[in-house]
Protein 1
Amino acid sequence: MSFKVPRGTQDILPSESWKWQQVESILREVCEIYRYKEIRTPIFEQTELFQRTVGDTTDIVTKEMYTFMDRGNRSMTLRPEGTAPVVRSFVENKMFGYPDQPVKLYYQGPMFRYERQQAGRYRQFVQFGVEAIGSADPAIDAEVISLAMEVYKRAGLKDIKLVLNSLGDAESRNAHREALVAHFTPSIGELCKDCQSRLEKNPLRILDCKVDREHPLMATAPSLTDYLNEESKVYFDQVKNYLAAIDIVYELDPNLVRGLDYYNHTAFEIMSTSDGFGAITTLCGGGRYNGLAEEIGGPSAPGIGYAMSIERLLLALEAEGKSFKQGPELDVYIVTLDEAAHRKGFNVLNELRSAGVRADMDYMDRKMKAQMKSADRFNAKIVIIIGEDEVNEQVVQLKNMTEGTQEKVEDANLIAKIKEQME
Ligand code: ATP
Ligand code: MG
């Protein structure tokens, strides 16, 4: 019997995880600059939370959720996305009562969707996202978009574009909905089964269909832009003005709908335009969801947020040929030549580590040459060599690998000497 990682998941090995850590530290830095605070919610939630918020007609809810009955016979779902759990927590913890509004949160962690595996599409993937809840100021829409762009900029991505749309308010969406029903009803038989059920439940979702994407009815479908009422138009114009004011360039796409049901007004995606990136080009998506908090039993609290996966960011970086720089792994590697030296080496190692020096030694009883090779692979700046003489004389040999020098150092002076050479 042999075991494999489940389909659509991956092990992130030490040869890759350091890249993840670099990206994660960029994310944290940007959030600090924009004053977004981390929130951590459970990996699973009541199934109904996602059914109500993400929406009964979305791909996520109809096909992609990992749902199970727990031992108390409650239906639970591994979270497929982060917004619903965050807004659930916002309502449950009465964050709407916090003195500083909007409440600005970020999260990062695994999400689960039962998808067909392909490049950039996993069944477990790590999403980073932010939510600003409590303000309907169009400037905060621009802030969230700017934060998203800043993340990609700091990560070193160049070939990206921002695509923007407005879904309007409820009135605009209702007017558009009627137009969609009128447009699709006569030939609905030509579209897939999912679209046929979407026609009644949520015709807007038809525009986001992955099966019928190329059907001629799609291109001629009534555009939301033409159905925005005055208020929605003004709001959208303000968002655009704020973006222009901070030099954020965007493309308008009236067919940009987004995956979840509760979006209104601003919707956006950032895509990779790099040739090497393949079929899936969306790096992140976000939008405004003014009705969401109310939908799950809270007070009215307008919100906006976005989410991206770290997997796709790393793929985009690779497609652009951006390489990460990995610094030296170790400051000091200790080479020991016999058993007494090994015991002394172990004490020295402990002293170094207590002083905050990154250090390691051989535990495989290898020959000096093999130990020196390890020091080399770890890119150690300093190698300490201890043999019989060094033990007797209470000294060590200190080899500075960058300068190519070697000197005898007394045990008592070792830490000071190492610190000096590390500067
Ligand atoms: P898509 O149209 O690609 O399926 P989506 O509308 O399902 O995207 P969202 O739910 O908005 O995507 O998720 C936001 C972001 O999360 C995406 O832009 C992408 O970066 C990432 N993402 C979504 N699904 C996956 C997945 N299965 N594997 C890796 N990343 C994903
Ligand atoms: Mg999807």
Protein 2
Amino acid sequence: MGSVRYRAVPRYYITTPIYYVKDAPHVGHAYTTVNADALARWHRLIGDEVFFLTGTDEHGQKVARAAEEQGLSPLEWTDQLAPRFAEAWADLDIANDDFIRTTEPRHRDAVQHFLGRINDNGHIFKDTYRGLYCVPCEQYYAEDELVDGDRCPIHRIPVEHLEEENYFFRLSAFEQPLLEWYESHPGAVVPESKRNEALSFIKGGLRDISITRTSIDWGVQVPWDERHVFYVWYDALINYLTAIGYGRDEERFEAWWPAVHHLIGKEIIRFHCVWWPAMCMAAGIDPPAHVQVHGWLLLGGEKMSNSSVNQISPADLSAEYGVDPVRYHLLRDIPFGSDGEFSAEGIAGRYNADLANNLGNLLSRVATVVGSKCGGTGPAPDPTSRLAGVAATVLAEATEAWNAGQPHLALEVTWRLIRETNAELEIAEPWKAEPGAAVDAVLGSALEVLRIVSILIVPAMPATAQEIWRRIGLEGSPADRRLPGAAGWGGYEAGRPVEKGAPLFPRRRG
Ligand code: MSP
């Protein structure tokens, strides 16, 4: 007898890929993580119950070799590296709810349980594998996928011949079920071009894939044959289930799965949009509901990566520009779904235009004039201000953009409100006028815009949002307000102390 189950609050489960602990994180990794954090924060703002997961992918040959090069055991190595990811994310103000390491016992148990189910369901068999393997990809390639004869199409290094006894997953049996599933779930992979890429992999024909290794022992042991460990990708994908209680806490698992949002880079579409849904079907659970694919952060036209020299550390960048400007740049300048060039000129240009000249300028001129014309006490907003309409439109459009997973559009729209408010001030010139009702109305409305903007920028720049909130005399945190109600015009109460303070974003030269 099932009881009636309903949820008053929608749930939003968002994940990043788990990062290989081959080296310290670079800005390319930060790109995914900041996007996921912003979306998680947005969903908290609109009142959803959020679970935001990130972590580290610690097994496999790639990590074992990196450890060996350092003269360390794999576990010693990953014990050193995993905290560097966690710290990098804390430094970037990432508010993840969990941080999973694939070397944790909870994950080993989930992997063994999940793959045990697939085995029990008859989708695994044993055979000898001969193939061409790229270690940095942790993936076998068919000959016709190679470039320049024997090179991996991603890393452009020669692949290796491997031959071993493996267990195989009968992926070929899922060709039709996957096509049918995608047919009935048209929005499962966005953008559309990436969905088409996934579909063409499937339509191109699926071969059974090897899922275990005997050549290394750095991995999760196969429960029914202890000479084997699971291939790292099979182990890694399951992290998304481990963290929500798969195999341990069915009620919790069912509360969060399958309505997940996987954020991934475009190079791992095949794993997330072909293998992963097939594995889920084979284990008897639903495939993930949403995969959002983004492009690469490029430096000089090349993907920023661990195996190239062009990596930049998030900490270096934040030391130079500040945490929130780095977050803002990553969200605002690289449209989600496309590649984007990363450059010092790009980040500095965006900083000056949007942060110093617009947002920072608005706050400082309003605070200064409230100081000189209103004795430092904020007046009430004008209920008839034109800006009320602008704010309402901006809220509606920003909401649509955030909900569609398009932070760059949401921020572009939000800045329209800031620009229009600066323009109003330039027309009204309250700094030249005599104190009185007209000046109060203009400044009260500008303070109201700053209040609304503080809430709207929480996902992108949480610390800046908090600081503006505090300077205009508000208590608590903008992150604790709930949209859309909190952005209704007129929420700023007169009589609050407004603090001038140092410029939020001093203009940068060059
Ligand atoms: N460990 C696997 C993922 C397993 S998920 C079950 C992996 N790790 S990775 O560290 O190589 O890359 C993880 C993710 O980092 C990529 O999918 C992508 O989201 C992000 N990025 C790494 N370099 C990037 C750029 N240069 N630009 C944008 N994102 C980048 O693959």
